Amino acid sequence: MPIETRPFDVRNYLNTPDEQREYLSQVVGDGDLREIADAVMVVAEVQGRNDVAYNARSVRDGSPDLDGVRQLLSALGWRLQIGDAQPQAA
Questions:
Q1: What pLDDT band is residue 88 in, cutting at 50, 70 and 90?
Q2: Cα(55)–Cα(89) distance, rounded to whole angstroms?
Q3: What does the pLDDT read at residue 30?
Q4: pTM for the model
Q5: Among 2, 6, 7, 75, CA closest to 37
Q6: Distance CA 45, CA 10 (A)
Q7: Over the stretch 62-75, which tens digit does the pLDDT of each residue have?
Q8: In the predicted model, what is the mean pLDDT of residues 46-54?
Q9: For the residues 28-44, what does the mean pLDDT come to?
Q10: How far, in Å, CA of 23 to CA of 12, rounded?
Q11: How far apart (Å, rounded) are the C-alpha atoms in residues 65 and 48?
Q12: CA-CA distance, 10 to 82, in Å (whole number)?
């Protein structure tokens, strides 16, 4: 009997501001600007901020730059912040 699966949608797991912030932090740490814009779009959709989601989609589909990502985060009440890199395991 085949295993039944269902599509994964991260939106189902971003119920609180802390979960949303952690998700964005992970994407910022691992992703490129297009992935970051996509993650901002997802969080904006979860928050019902269709205006920000629309702008994030435009940034993602265009030529994303750091200023565009910064503006998207600012619209959600967040900011980009620099911290120490985690040491790589040997």
A1: low
A2: 38
A3: 82
A4: 0.82
A5: 75
A6: 11
A7: 888 889 888 999 99
A8: 92
A9: 90
A10: 12
A11: 24
A12: 25
Amino acid at residue number 31:
G
Residues of the chain above pLDDT 70, percent:
94
Q: 10: which residues sit within 8 A by CB, 6+ positions away?
A: 23, 42
Do residues 56 and 43 make contact, with C-beta atoms less than 8 angstroms apart?
no
25-28 contact pairs (CB < 8 A, 24+):
28/80
Count CA within 13 A, CB hemisphere, residue 17: 3
CB-based contacts of 70, cutoff 8 Å, min separation 6: 79, 80
Residue showing tokens 């969080």? 43
Q: Where are the domains of the chain?
A: 14-75
Q: Single out the residue of 1, 73, 81 nearest to residue 37, CA to CA.
A: 73
90 has a pLDDT exceeding 70: no
Three-state DSSP class for 64?
coil
H-run or E-run covering 55: helix 50-61
